[in-house]
Structures are given as C-alpha cells and as structure tokens.
Write a structure and sequence with these properties.
alpha+beta, six-stranded antiparallel sheet, 23 strands, about 30% helix
C-alpha cells in the first residue's frame, strides 16, 4: 500500500477522491501519493494546482484527474470536445508545464551520478466507460481509472529517452523537496473580484486563463477569467505601464460599448495580490474555430451560417457606434452560444477613438490572414469604418467557402475589395445589404455618408 502525504486539503470532487483511494490501495509500498496540492512558481507568483503527485521508485508522476465520461474527442492540438458537446482546452500541455516545475524542484536532491528522476504527466478520466479519441503522443497518456496504476508501474511508458534509475534510497528526500514549498489547494478555488476560478485552461510564466463562475450567485453563466502577473524582475516600470495599456485595451473597449447581446460582456477588471485580471462572458459551446475544426459548421444549414454572419456584423456595428473597431477579427474571436448565435470577443487590439496610446504593432499580429490591406503594415496603417468588414468576409470564406447564396457571395466580394472606399461603408450598410438579399425587413441604418467609409487616425 502506498504512503499518503496529506497536506491538509480535501478532494475537490468525487473523481479525485476515487483516484486517490485507488492509488493508495493498488500501488505497492515504497511509493508516495501527494494529493490536492498547490505549488507557487517563485518567478511569477502563479500557483500551479496538482490533483495528485505520485513519487515512484523510478520516476515522479503528475496525475491530472478529470471526471469526464462518454467520448472525449480531440479537435486539433488545442481543444477537446466532451460527450455533452462542451469544449475544453487540451489539459496535457498544462500538465506538462506542471511536470517541468516539479522537475526543477527535485533537481536539487543529490542523486550521485544518476540523472534526476524523470517527471511524467498523465490524465485519468472518471469512468472506465470513457472513450478517448485522442491521437499522437498524447493518446497513451489518456487513461481510464483501471489503466492508471498499470501505467504508473510500467517504466517503459515514460517519455524519457534515458533508461530510468532506481531512486529508492532518496525517496524521502524527493518527497521533502516536492512538498517543502507546497500548500493544500483551496477547495473553493482562487477568487478574482466577485468570481471564482473553477478550471485552469492555459498558463505560462506571465498569464493564466480560467473557466470561472460567480462566487455568490448560482446563475449558471460561465465566464472566462484572464489574469496577468507583471513581475518586477521581468518588467521595468516603463515596460509595466506599457503592458498595462495593452492589457486594459479590451476592458476599455468593452466598457465603452456596454452590454450588447452580440458581444461578450465585460463583468470585471481589477488588480489583487499583484495580479491584474479580466472577467468576461464565455460559452461552453466554444468558438467558431472549434466548431469549424469539429466539422459542425459544415453541417450547419445556410440560414444558420447567415445568422452567424449577421450576428458578427451587428456586433461590429455596435462597437463602431461607440468609436471602437476590432482590428483582430478571426474565428477564435467569435463565441457560439448553445442555440447557435454568435458573440464577439477578443478586443485586445481594438482601435478606440480618443485613446491616448496605441496597442497596435507592439507584437506580431496573430491573424494576418484575415487582415485588410490597410492594416497589414503595423508601421504604416489606417483604420476605416469598413476595415472590419474585410476581415468578416475573409473569415466567412475560410469557414464557409462558397456555399452561400450568390447574392451574399457578391456582397462578400465587395467587402474583400482592396480599397476601403469600394466596400460597404460600414457594418450597418453590410447588414442592410445582407437583409436585402434575404428579403427580410431591414433595420434602421444610418444615412449613407457621401464621403464613403471614414478614416480614423491613431496616435
């Protein structure tokens, strides 16, 4: 029976309790199990949360426990789809990062002329009936509960290129090196303002992204929590202030626009314990990109595709009415609700009329394939009322190809013209033209500006 190293925490859910019980009962003596722990990264202040750490005679394991049942399907490298249709980030890259953090800790333990123990990450589901449709090197690390202990016992499953050594003589020293800086993970999760971080989605040295919920209201509304730690060791005062301008841009844009049904609402923005954080609405159904990768857009009827186009255009027009232009429209910036409607997010590079500084061009643009010509050069660019329409049409071509009504295709062709003056004047004009093609009652549209799309200058 394995030894329990209890830091004083409690299982977060039944799957964690069942997994820890299985490990303790089925692993032999000479093994140690450290459940439910939190390890701060001294470089960044971020806490890495561990469901279970197993110290074996031949290696150390990071075990991610997910209570998933049914079929878990891989959607590209980044996203997985659960049996209920919910989209989750692939948890293994984050587990690998946790393994690297642990590896840096145990390198301090003297092991003679042997290599330091290898730290291996793996994932275990909540049921033996779970089916993983995961491919590549990740497949063998995705385990059902009954497969977990055999995986840990088999040293041939390690990803290390070197043959493992025996570390039984330094086992207690390894446990002490791991648990020394650790504390029990809080069952309630980390709190940001009025919101709780429920499930970590991504993390690196400077930022973390969480799926969250309201701490006091059981409203069932998922939110995305993004947090940033701007370490004084990595940023000068000037660099920190410049980075804050960039981080605040999305929050400033969303607060100026206010609540709109086609835009993911800003719920909170603030600073606590040295971290800046932003809370916005999110969707269990994922983004247009995840829908595209899993093939659901190809099965969407024409009406559903046109609804998405119109929803995004409506969001762009709402932003334009408040002096905000997106400048980074792409499939990842469009959330899909469970009923197939679109909500726009991703305003980090937005142009805001009257802003005193620019955030554009500080880093390479992440979505150049959708950018209009006038925004391609970060050293010499212009923003027009029709700039986001080019990106919308480019995105529509990428997602839907030419499988749209001919009149809509012609409208998209106009939006893709190189000159901003040759496109529809603004998103409202696009909506009016789209509704005309669909023979639906047009919305109230601002009177056409005889000067054409307006140019906006950023200083």
């Amino acid at each position: 029976m394995a030894r329990l190293v209890d830091l004083g925490g409690e299982p977060i859910n039944p799957s964690e309790r069942e997994t820890i019980t299985r490990l303790l009962d089925e692993l032999p003596g000479g093994w140690s199990v450290i459940p439910n722990a939190s390890l701060p990264d001294p470089r960044t202040g971020h806490a890495y949360e561990y469901d279970a750490i197993v110290v074996a005679p031949h290696a150390v394991y990071v075990v991610e426990v997910k209570g998933w049942r049914g079929t878990v399907r891989q959607l590209g490298q980044a996203d997985w789809q659960l049996s209920g249709g919910q989209i989750r980030r692939n948890p293994l890259p984050l587990a690998d990062q946790k393994a690297r953090i642990l590896a840096s800790r145990i390198k301090r333990v003297p092991v003679g002329d042997r290599r330091a123990p290898y730290v291996q990450a793996c994932l275990v589901s909540g049921s033996d009936a779970t089916q993983f449709e995961v491919y590549g090197t990740d497949a063998r690390r995705c385990l059902r509960p009954s497969e977990l202990v055999p995986f840990l016992l088999d040293s041939a499953q390690l990803s290390s290129r070197s043959a493992p050594s025996s570390y039984g003589d330094v086992h207690d020293s390894l446990v002490d090196a791991i648990t020394g800086p650790m504390v029990a993970r809080r069952a309630a999760g980390r709190r940001y303002g009025s919101y709780l971080a429920v499930e970590l989605q991504e993390r690196d040295d400077a930022r973390a992204i969480w799926k969250g919920k309201h701490a006091l209201l059981d409203d069932g509304r998922p939110v995305r929590i993004r947090s940033w730690f701007l370490s004084a060791y990595r940023y000068t005062d000037e660099q920190r202030e410049a980075e804050l301008v960039r981080l605040r841009r999305a929050a400033v844009a969303l607060s100026r626009i206010g609540e709109h049904p086609r835009i993911a609402t800003l719920r909170d923005f603030g600073e606590q314990d040295g971290e800046f954080f932003e809370v916005t609405d999110w969707s269990e159904s994922g983004t247009l990109l995840t829908a595209f990768v899993r093939g659901s857009l190809a099965r969407l009827p024409i009406k559903g595709r046109l609804t998405i186009l119109r929803d995004v255009a409506e969001a762009l027009e709402a932003a334009r009415q408040h002096g905000v232009f997106h400048r980074a429209l792409c499939p990842e910036a469009v959330l899909l609700t469970p009923n197939g409607r679109a909500r726009l997010t991703g305003f980090e590079l937005a142009y805001i009329e009257g802003a005193q500084a620019t955030v554009y061009g500080h880093k390479p643009h992440p979505h150049l394939q959708f950018l209009p010509p006038e925004l391609q050069d970060p050293a010499d660019y212009d923003v027009f009322d029709s700039s986001d329409l080019y990106a919308l049409a480019s995105m529509a071509r990428f997602l839907f190809g030419v499988d749209l009504p001919s009149g809509v295709q012609a409208l998209l062709e106009r939006c893709l013209l190189p000159s901003p003056m040759d496109r529809p004047e603004h998103p409202a004009a696009f909506i009016a033209a789209l509704d005309g093609e669909l023979h639906t009652p047009p919305p109230t549209v601002p009177a056409p500006d005889v000067r054409g799309p307006q140019r906006h200058t950023e200083y």
